[in-house]
Design brief:
The chain is an alpha+beta fold. It contains 4 helices and 13 strands. The termini are far apart.
Length: about 260
Amino acid sequence: MDYLPRKSAKELMSLSRFAVLGAISLLSACASAPPRIVNSSSTPTPLHDAPYNRVYWVHGHRYHVLPACAGYQQRGIASWYGPGFNGRRTSTGAVYNMYAYTAASKVLPLPCWVRVTNLRNGREVVVKVNDRGPFVANRILDLSYGAARALGMIQSGTAIVEVQAVDPALPAANPPPPPSEAQGAPVPRLFLQVGAFSDQERARRLVTALRDMGFGPVRLAPLLAEPRQALYAVRIGPLANVNALDEAARRMRKVGIKGFKVRVE
């Protein structure tokens, strides 16, 4: 018989806490809010039967493409890709031109058009989404070098943005761009949402477990206040910058917490 060493009380408590977090994370992943869909004009019709608009797998993760681009609106972190990909084929078969205004998305149907606004400096650009990516955690869009330069994010490598579906043929019908910090809007704040629960006590237990493991600040944010539809989000933040957010996400993955989402307020 193989010998199994006895575990200390402290180790058993840690394992128990990980088990609780794992169970809660699996449940909470299903409750995370999807991208917000708002009324807007129709956008050019993507090629829904094309291979690049079907369900696909990358690095063991399954991605579902949204049925339409129209009405898509999401805040998050954008990155950019450039010289190493210049001249290669994109997912749609088009040749990538790093100086053109294009982008890659994991979930938007291809091709479609979106406006990307830098929520810090107010710069904006309309790009054609014609590629898949970025397959890096915590990013919602990968911009071409040209688009990233227009947004003023080349040096930083990332930017906090809002992405809105638009129709280039009907500019008057498109939603207005969001206000930015440069225009007097509040500074965009970064959070990692670990879960969202209808059971407030379960949410409180997750808050306690995260604090006991050294994560912070951790807060309980009510998403819906109606008695029959109450929903409570467990969030880490606000985090100082994208690097701090990435580090918190890395620590959570290290202890087995999955299913968290980036939230920008």
